[in-house]
Amino acid sequence: MKTYIRTTAFKVLAVLLSALILGFAFGAVSNSGSSPITSAASVVFSPLQKLSARLAEAMKDFNAGFVSADYYRKQIDELKLEIEKYKEQLVEYEKQKRKLQSYEAMLGVKEEHKDFKLSAAEIISRDPSDSFFSFVIDKGSLHGIEVDMPVIYGKQLIGVIKEVTPSTALVKTILSPEINVGAYEIRTFEDGYTRGLVRDGKSGLMEMSGLTGFSAISKGGLVCTSGVGGLYPRDLIIGSVTEIYTDNITTAGAAVLEPGLDFTELTDVFVITDFSGRQTGK
To answer: Is the full-model pTM beyond 0.70?
Structure first.
């Protein structure tokens, strides 16, 4: 018996009994209409009830926090979708804007050269290993495209069709040493021919050869197609003169040209499928 009295269980029981006795006493002297047992239980368990209520309220706020987090996460996901949608619309807008600019430039060409028959084309791929910026367009033989047809953007000559499949075509630009174009300088009317120039391992320029050693062409002069040979129509812009020099051996004159456009930024071009005086290379 003495051993049991020393146990923790007995001590807890004694505390509970003491609390009940105090509860009976408090209930007896109070004016409440409740029974002594009810009053005692109320005294003993009231703190526990208050604690339980506080815990329930805290859990409610805790759950509300989770609901809010889910709500905001959903809102963020919806905003991300909206942003992606607007990005796609912006890309399409820029694409259509470039097409509109291309057609506006081409409208001026058609008004000046009513004999031109044009086919609009989009650049679909480029060869990163080609230093002369060749590219592939989305039009081929099924669309009337043939080898040696000129390719332009506005009044600027870009290049010429060199390979054709039913649905695509390869364009070599005028920056390639393979491409020779009959040309003349519009102020002096001196003529010659142009081809791509590689200088110090770098491309992006052209050379106009066939000039005399006493050429009157000066820096800033504009060089256009002469129409000689019938592969290119006359008066398409090739480039502007950046330098004049004379060959020390042949004493012939030559000019260095740069194109009026950055060919790497082109997205749309036009193929001249026919023009007055056209001759094929066949």
So the answer is: no
CATH number for the domain spanning 160: value is: 2.40.10.340
| Residue 205 maps to a domain | yes
The one-letter code for the residue type at 259 is P
**72-81 in b/e burial notation, b at 16+ Cβ within 10 A?**
eeeeeeeeee
Q: Where are the alpha helices (DSSP H) in 198-277?
A: none
One-letter amino acid at 218 equals: S
3-state secondary structure of 154: coil
The answer to whether position 100 is within a domain reads no
Per the domain annotation, does 22 fall within a domain? no
Share of the chain above pLDDT 90, in %: 45
Residue 77 domain flag:
no
Domains in the chain, number: 1
Which residues lie below 8 Å from residue 249, measured CB to CB, with a gap of 6+? none
Residue 115 structure tokens: 């004999």
Overall average pLDDT of the 156-173 stretch: 97
Q: State how beta strands 156-164 and 169-173 pair.
A: antiparallel
Q: Which of 63-72, 175-184, 199-208 has the lowest mean pLDDT?
A: 63-72
Q: Are 269 and 124 in contact (CB under 8 A)?
A: no
Confidence of residue 111 (pLDDT cuts 50, 70, 90): confident
Q: Which amino acid is at 204?
A: G
